Amino acid sequence: MHIKLFNMIVMRKLKHIFNYIFYMAYAKEEKSWASVPVLQGLLSLSLIINLYLLIAFILIEMFFKVPIFSLPKEELFPYIILIATIVLIINYFIYGYKNKFAVIIDKYKTESEENKKKNRLTTRVFIILSIVLLIIVFIIGVS
């Protein structure tokens, strides 16, 4: 019972962080002239998700001895492009399809300054910890 509740809380917080990453990229790009803010939001979010997929692949190679990254670059590169494209398409259907992103933009556009600071701090800490986790997993995997 407690594990299920914990998972619900964690998933809700992750969804909030992903939504806010999308919003931050959207809002920053929206200020630019002749830009496509939805695309920037989707690309930023896809980058974070691909970072976690990279961590997962490194862990799979380390613990299950599956030779993922030992393939030649010519064979590995198309798979990387395919996976990144699939993540982008999935994010498009979650956020972009039928302007679903408008609800997220409306929610965060009217947030208070206090909430804005708190959300930006949470999001930045999440991104920094994600990069640190990747570095740690990479170092452990190399050694």
Approximate strand percentage? under 5%
Low-confidence stretches: none
Largest sheet, in brief, is: none
> What's the helical proportion of residues?
over 70%
Q: End-to-end distance, in Å?
A: 39 Å
How many DSSP helices?
A: 5
> How many independent structural domains?
1
Return Rg in Å: 17 Å
Query: What is the N-to-C order of secondary-structure elements (H for helix, E for strand)?
Result: HHHHH
Decide which structural class fits the backbone. mainly alpha
Mean pLDDT: 91
Shape: globular
> Total strand count, please?
0
Detailed description of the structure:
By secondary structure, the chain is mainly alpha-helical. It has one domain. It contains 5 helices and no strands. It has helices spanning 2-30, 37-64, 73-96, 101-109, 113-142. The chain is globular.
Topology:
Blueprint: H1 2-30, H2 37-64, H3 73-96, H4 101-109, H5 113-142
Helix pairs in contact: 1-2, 1-5, 2-3, 2-5
Overview features:
mainly alpha; 5 helices
What is this structure, in a nutshell?
By secondary structure, the protein is mainly α. It has helices at 2-30, 37-64, 73-96, 101-109, 113-142.
